[in-house]
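Example record

One chain of 409 residues, shown exactly as stored in the release files.
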Amino acid sequence: MMTGLKNIFHSLLIFLLVALLLHSKILFNFVWVGPDLFGDFKMPLNWLECHSLGFNLITIENIDCGTGKKITQFNYGYIFLSTPYNNTLGTFYRVYLPWILIISFIYLTLKIINPKNKLEIVLVYLALLNPSTLLLIERMQLDCLFYIAIIFTIYNRFYFVNWFLGFYFALIKFYPIAFFITIFVENKNRSIKKILIIIVSLTIIFSIYLYINREFYLFMLNNMLPGKAGYHFLYSLNAIPKIFKYVFHIKYQFLLLIFYSCFIFTTIKIYKKINLENTLWQKKGNYYLNKVIYTNDSKLFLIGGYFSIFLFVLVSSYAYKEIFLILLIPLILNIKNNYSDKIFTILIYVFIFRYCYLFLYAYINITQIIQIMIACYTYAYHHKSYMYMHRMVCIQPTCGIKSIFTYAV
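Predicted structure tokens for this chain:
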């Protein structure tokens, strides 16, 4: 009971801090603030409004829907246009829903981490108030909704609802297809045969929908305008090779080979260390890691792990997509607190260090950028060194997470 009240107290306090920061000049020192609060959230609403007025959005041209301003090219999956919209809902979506999502995001994060000591409380505050998370909230990107939906699907026992959310989100942005991982672990009494039937059935439904609407999805694939994160926003394993290419003029393909090899090597080393530790635990009669697969913490880790690995390793993502790393913290804390294992203890401190470093990096990124644009190459080189440090701090927890994730799978 007391833990629940503490989580509510911290949720309200963090929400108040976020609301103050969103309307404060302080935020301008750490986040590239957009011209309009929740700007990335409002653009899809403009698409829905235009669609409700009967305008065709399947075009590469900007559209004038009679609202007094041009609407940018539609850039989501076609199923998004099935979202209900009218004037009343439009007001709700624009005025109230972003704040509902923010308080839900904060409270659910506290619920899944459930901090029990000062260190864990500090970790939660840093996870929710660091510049990358604040960038997500200020823009109110769709990833915030994905994050909330992941936690919902973990605790929800109406499995059809979970599958529907996975189906809907995967047809808006393809990477949320990772929602369907829950099929394997949402019910430990489910047989392999039933799992296969569910997967085949959902695959057929998914394929039929894509086939029926193939014209729209082919248009999306051929004409979509993926946002490209610049060096200052980049969350990707490709970031360091790009910086090295710019600074040292080394061939980019060669750098990719080197850094991906280092990433894989580090992942394997950590994996072997975790495997050795687990073998020692089993010899002592402790089979915790073998049983943890069906816990909520493990389910969060699996889905958050897939999102994080895909967005960090396989594509070049914006910094705010780091939020899926938060979903990995509950399991890491759980194992750390139950076994006092050094690897998981180190990972927690790496998270804390990394979140602290984000403030320094973001401040330099924001306050120095104008000077960098007009400064000499040497000055730019020194700023790139900060960016290099930032990417290295990103890579360290991801290697550890990839190792644990590989072991869990």
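Notes: Residues 373-389, 399-409 have pLDDT under 50 and may be disordered.
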